Structure formats: C-alpha cells, structure tokens
Here is the input.
Amino acid sequence: MSYIIAEGLTKQYGSGDAAVIAAADISFQIEEGEFIGIMGESGSGKSTLLGMMGAMNAPTSGRFIVDDIDIYSLGQEQRADFRREFLGFIFQSFHLVPYLTVIENTMLPLAVVKAGRKQKREMAQEALSQVGLLEKAQRLPNQISGGEKERVAIARSIVNEPPVLLADEPTGNLDTKTSREIMELLKRLNQKGMTIVMVTHSPDCAGYAQRIMRVSDGKLVGENSNVRSLDRWHRKERKKESLPSQNQATAAIQSPG
Amino acid sequence: MNLKIIVFRNLLRRKAKAAFVIAGLVLGVSTVIGIISYVEAMTNDINHKLEKYGANILIVPRTENLNLTYGGISLGGVSFEMEEIREKDLERVTTIKNSNNIAALGPLVLGVANVESHKVLMAGVDFKSAGILKPWWHVQGALPGEDGVVLGAEAARVLNMAVGNGLKVNDKDLVVSGILQATGSQDDQLIFARLPTVQAIFGKSGRVSMAEVAALCKDCPIEAMVKQISDALPGAKVMAIQQVVKSRMETLAQFKQFSYGISGVILFIGSMVVLVTMMGSVRERTDEIGIFRAIGFRKSHIMKIVFMEAAIVSGLAGITGYFLGFGATKAALTLFSESHSGNVPFSFELAGSAVTIALAVGLISSAYPAFMAARLDPNEALRAL
Here is the structure.
C-alpha cells in the first residue's frame, strides 16, 4: 500500500450557479521517499490540491490517506497535530515571523512540543546547519537575503524531521542561482528519505522531481517522469497563454478603435 | 522556544499597541483605585472627626414615663422622674464584644441643687473621660478637686460667680475652680463637680443618672454596640446619637455608589480599548496565526498566546494603575481635603484587587479576539496573503 493515497479529491467553493470546482476527482498515489512535482498554470488548482494534502483544506468529497491515516476523518485539532508531526511546509513567500530571530523561526514548530530548551536548540542548529545558515542564527528576517529567508523556511520545515515536505513554489521569489541552491538542498533532503511534494511553475525545478503531476482546470491531466516531454508541454502551455483567445481576437477585430 | 517567547517578542515588537492597551487599562484601574482610596480616606476622616464629636451613645435609666419637655420648656410641673443606674452595673459596659471600640465611658449623676436663692441643675462627672466626651469644653481656671466646682458660663453669670469664689450647695461649701467658656449647649446652665462629690451631696452614692459613651465606630456598626450595651444593661435604655453619624454615613454611601458607577463606566471604556486593540492586533497578525496553525499549533495554543499577551499587559496595567491611583489620591487629599487627616496607607489588598480587576478586564475583553484568532482557517489565512 502506498504511503500517500488521494482518492477522488474534489473541492467545490460556493454552491449553485456560483459554484467553482477547484479540484475535481483527483486520485494519485505517492510512495515513501518520492520527490513529486505538481505543475499547472495559474488557477489550475495546484494550491488547492496542496492545501488538501496539507490537512488544511478539507475536500468536499474524497479521501486523503497518509501512512494509513485518513486525514479528513480526524478532527481539526488532530489535523493540527498531524501537520506538526508529519508535515513540513515551505511557503512561496517564506512566511517567517518578523520579530523572531532565524533560530527562533526555525524552532517555531517545536514551540508546542514537549522537549527541553537545549534539545530544541540543538534540533534547530542541526536544521540550520543543513541549510548552511548556522552563522546567521541570531539575525532577524529583515537582516537576511531572500535566498536566506527561503533557507530558514526550509530549516523550519525540517526541524522536527517530518516524513513529508510540502513546498509551494519554493523558488518563486528567487533568482536562478539561488533557486538552484534551494533545489539542490531539497534534493539532498529527498536523498535522506524525505517524501517531497512540490508545486512549481519552473521546468528547471520540476526537473529535480522523480515524477511530475500536471493539473489543469482542477483536474489531474497526466503524470510524466520525462522532463523533456514535460518541457515541451510547458512551452506549449506558455505559448497558449501568450496568444489571445479566439474570443479576445474576435472582440479586438470588431472593436473600432 | 515556547509560547512565552513568542508572546514576549511580539509585545516588544508592538510596543506602541501594548502601551495603548496598558494606558487604557491604567486609566480605568487608577480611577477605580483613586476613587476607592479617596472614599476610604474620607471615611477615615469622618470617623476621626466623629471621634472628636465626643459621646455618641447615651445610657439612661429605663422609665415608663413620657418626657414632659418640649423645645426646652418643661410642662406640667414635673421636673424629674428619676431612676438611676447602679455604678457597679455600668462596669459591664467595658466587657461587651466591641469594648475595644469604646474610647470613653462617662457616668453622670444629676440633681437639683440650691445655690444661694437659685435652683440649679448640678452634674457629677468624671472629668478624665469628659476630656474625650466633651472635647469642646474649655475651662477657664482649673478642673475641680474634691470640694471644687466648674460653673457653666450662664450659671456663673446668673450666680455672679468668678473663679476662686466660694458657694454653698445644699449646705456644702464648695469653691469655684473654673468656669466653662460658653458652649451654646445645656452645659452652660449647669454646675459641674466630681462624681463622688455630687453623689455625696444628693445621697446617691454608687448610683448614676445616666452615662455617655464615646464609641469609635470605624470598624463596627454603632447599632451593634448599642445592642451589646443593652444586653449588658437590661435595666437601662441605650440610644445612639445617630443623626450625625447616619447622615454622614449616608452621604458617604451615596458618594461611594456614585463613585462605583463612574468606575464601572471607566472600566467598561477601558475594556473596549482592550477589545478594539486586541481585535486589531489579531487582524494584523493573520499571516502569523496562519503560519502557526499551518505548522501544527492547535486552536488552544493560539488562544493561549492571545490570553498570555493580555495577561502580561493587564498585569502591568494593574500594578501601574494601583500606584497611579494611590498617588492621585494622596495628591487629591493634599489639594482638596481641609483637615488632611485622611491617611491613605499602602494596601496589599487594594493592590491585589487592582491587578485582579485589570486581569479580569483584560482577559474578558480579549476572549472574543482570542476566539477569532483561534478560529482562523490556516488555509484561508495563507491564501489571503
């Protein structure tokens, strides 16, 4: 049995005529230690899917199972416990707490964990050394660069050594060089056995994943492990986005000025 | 890293907001403390003044006859229908439960004496307790010895007596040792001598006509003391001179009620300041709370953070409010009190109450913001950014 199983995940916002289906009958399986990339255009439902995988966004229907635990059969507080013990989150905008130092931000998931101060500090130092930021432990987030902030976010997500890491556009705000460093870091974590699910727009980043799931209009439209064919698909998508739609073109012709 | 560090760091970062909440609560708490301290000081002041008024309880023999005087005019030719209290029985007054509140007990024996061709009311008193019971007495001359008398101002005028003059009272030769300055009371009409002297003149040895008690009623209701004395002296009628006490206490009680009303309004305003500020703070921190929830903080952890912040801020406000209120009362008493006799001692109880009030207001006002924060959907919070 797979480590992560999604069965018919559907998420609908609103009802009646105003209903929007953000995810429609999505099913997949992820094995322990896999590195999965989720790709799709803006508004395709990637973040909704990640929210459902993060035990934060209950699906309208369907089941999401991690390590034999049916996540949405749990209560809200138990889901919070699940997030704390099973998941690490990396957000696109870092979401560091501005008044806490680098090491305090890293220790944040441990704030509600029963452990000694020394032990927590050692865990945070270990996480920071993994991302190469130990020497900046006492700095505040506004005293470090964007790439370093992302590293702190990664350190925070791995401090309690969760089995699964969910990353939402982890390189979205970073330059190419820093992006590559971050992706190398994620690759190393994956090599240590961590299951990683990453949402990304970037084919370069997706290239680090072992398997890529494509999402479009709230549906899982395919899986691909071949980065080249994925790249072709991505170029096609970009081309489609840059061309005006048939309706827009018609409207432009009909418009006198 | 624990929740306390998050709380302290956040308070240090949002100093202005914390200061605003503290200021709102300090205003409320210091006003309440100021008012309570001021009322307390006023009560002390009034009690102090009441003590100066002298006797406030009268012990007279129980009688079945009605008084036949009206407006100072005696009707029906009945001058005295006197019964007496035994001096020995009177000692029981000193054994009542609230005997510590008795400042002075003054037995008094009365009789009508013949002086020259005049009939004069003569009173035997204990001059030592009279000093407390009748603080308005000013004797020109000296207090009397065994054979001396002090004349009321009017009595001295009518009898045409001066200090050092001799006079015959019911055939006993006595000397005027002093004359009372006019008091405007009935005392001006009387001749005063030592209790045993008057008892001997009227053949009332071991008996007294009445007794006056000066009770310090700061810590006791005067009614309770009246009852205790009545129980100790079943044959006597005990009355509180209540007009002064009651009217003053009623005024004070009204002032207290009004003050508490004002305090309540001010505390309500303070609580609104806390509520609005905490709501604003929670809204500002949507992202943080979203992160906390996303990384596995429970709702109870979020509520704990908000409540801990409120408790720290409120506790500080309580302590500051107490000292500010305390200082304001001292200043107000110095400025507005005529006698300056209202002392405001440091009170641990009141300080504790100030902190408790501040904590209660702070925590109650933070309950809704805490609930709102805990209810925040992490997915919505992070998506909104």
